């Protein structure tokens, strides 16, 4: 490692550095996504199906959020549960 | 009830996506609830310019095809909560866009937003046609250069004939000229057409003059609409254009490049 690299702090990232970093992260995801089918709509449908087996959740009740990172991506799934009246399990009804 | 504005040009690479992001951000800064939509199916880029590319889950095409609800596909900007992005698909092609699908999505968005800004792809084919079809107003992005001006003229013809408004006789799509990548120094040297020359040829009202600016590349590097760079000449020029778009009367001026200390010193000694 050269002295220059040693002293280069991430704080001093130029806008060009940030362009490169953003592209590397995005493209690594896009290249792998291209060879696999679009799974997110299917994942959403399956989640909804499973939840609906137990609870009355509307078709809009599932919200998927994704944040692609360099080493780690996070998938956040929010399910809006109905209020008291709709909360009784279907099996019991 | 939102106003639908298409950002279009015919010619490629003149600054449509840059302008969509900048105008969208500018409107949101003025408190307007705004959504920007990427119509460039297969060549998604608005997400990068807006800086939300890592958060795309569902897209415009998913919504059109019923695989996702609009609410699920909209990405809220991290800086301004009244600014949203509807990204397009990177894997499909323009045939996935249908007139009925586009209309349905726009009608739903109309209820929730004040402004819907549609980033058109280059050309005059299906994608560009559908981007302008439901527009109430158009921002025609033009560079001071012969082929760009010619293509803008062609697009103005399409706007007045091949849109929903034109076909239904609901009045014209109000078109504005946005002159971008304008270089005053080259104009002064007679190397580039003057604003007045272009206005004389296209004869539509001028929304703004965006100078050629280093701030634009910098903003795209980091994924920030250039309007957020309020000190830059391009940012200020877009801010002015947005003021005119919402109906304010503003004197037209060409924003000078902000000079660094070094340049200012050079000037003083010169
Ligand atoms: N005012 C400006 N000053 C300097 N560079 C600019 C300016 N406006 C746009 N550019 C640059 O021009 C290039 C094209 O811009 P942009 O992607 O916005 O065009 P576009 O019309 O959307 O292109 P396409 O037709 O491919 O969709 C980009 O590299 C952008 O940074
Ligand atoms: Mg573009």
Automatic annotation (TrEMBL), chain A:
Gene Ontology process terms (BP): cell division; regulation of division septum assembly
Key words of the record: Cell cycle, Cell division
Gene Ontology MF terms in the entry: identical protein binding
Highest taxon of the lineage: Bacteria
UniProt keyword Cell division present: yes
Family label: Belongs to the MinE family.
Record's function text: Prevents the cell division inhibition by proteins MinC and MinD at internal division sites while permitting inhibition at polar sites. This ensures cell division at the proper site by restricting the formation of a division septum at the midpoint of the long axis of the cell.
Name recorded for this polypeptide: Cell division topological specificity factor
TrEMBL record, chain B:
Keyword hit for Cytoplasm: no
InterPro entries assigned: AAA_dom, MinD, MinD_FleN, P-loop_NTPase, ParA/MinD_ATPase
SUPFAM superfamilies: P-loop containing nucleoside triphosphate hydrolases (SSF52540)
Domain AAA: from-to ranges: 2-149
GO CC annotation: cytoplasmic side of plasma membrane; cytosol
Keyword Nucleotide-binding in record: yes
Binding site for ATP: 11-18
Keywords: ATP-binding, Cell cycle, Cell division, Nucleotide-binding, Septation
Gene3D superfamilies per record: P-loop containing nucleotide triphosphate hydrolases
Quaternary assembly: Interacts with MinC and FtsZ.
UniProt-listed NCBIfam families: minD_bact (TIGR01968)
Descriptive protein name: Septum site-determining protein MinD
Native species: Amaricoccus macauensis
């Amino acid at each position: 490692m050269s002295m220059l690299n040693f002293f280069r702090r991430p704080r001093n990232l130029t806008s060009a550095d940030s362009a490169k970093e953003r592209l590397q992260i995005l493209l690594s995801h896009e290249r792998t996504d291209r060879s696999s089918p679009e799974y997110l709509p299917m994942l959403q449908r399956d989640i909804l199906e499973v939840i609906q087996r137990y609870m009355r959740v509307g078709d809009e009740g599932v919200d998927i959020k994704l944040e692609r990172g360099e080493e780690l991506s996070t998938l956040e799934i929010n399910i809006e549960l109905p209020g008291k009246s709709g909360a009784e399990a279907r099996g019991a009804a | 009830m939102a106003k639908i504005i298409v950002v279009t040009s015919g010619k490629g690479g003149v600054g449509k996506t840059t302008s969509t992001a900048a105008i969208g951000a500018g409107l949101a800064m003025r408190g307007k609830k705004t959504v920007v939509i990427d119509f460039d199916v297969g060549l998604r880029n608005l997400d990068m310019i807006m800086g939300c590319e890592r958060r795309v889950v569902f897209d415009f095409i998913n919504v059109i095809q019923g695989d996702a609800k609009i609410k699920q596909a909209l990405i809220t900007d991290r800086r301004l909560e009244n600014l949203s992005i509807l990204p397009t698909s990177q894997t499909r092609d323009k045939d996935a866009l249908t007139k009925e699908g586009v209309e349905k999505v726009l009608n739903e968005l109309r209820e929730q937003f004040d402004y819907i800004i549609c980033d058109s792809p280059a050309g005059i084919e299906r994608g560009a046609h559908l981007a302008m079809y439901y527009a109430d107003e158009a921002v025609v992005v033009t560079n001071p250069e012969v082929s760009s001006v010619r293509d803008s003229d062609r697009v103005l013809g399409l706007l007045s004939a091949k849109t929903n408004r034109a076909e239904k006789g609901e009045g014209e799509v109000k078109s504005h000229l946005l002159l971008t990548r304008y270089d005053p120094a080259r104009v002064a040297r007679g190397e580039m057409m003057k604003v007045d020359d272009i206005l004389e040829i296209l004869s539509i009202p001028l929304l703004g003059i965006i100078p050629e600016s280093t701030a634009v590349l910098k903003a795209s590097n980091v994924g920030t609409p250039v309007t957020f760079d309020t000190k830059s000449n391009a940012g200020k020029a877009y801010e002015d254009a947005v003021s005119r778009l919402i109906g304010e009367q503003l004197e037209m001026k060409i924003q000078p490049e902000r000079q660094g200390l070094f340049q200012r010193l050079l000037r003083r000694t010169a």
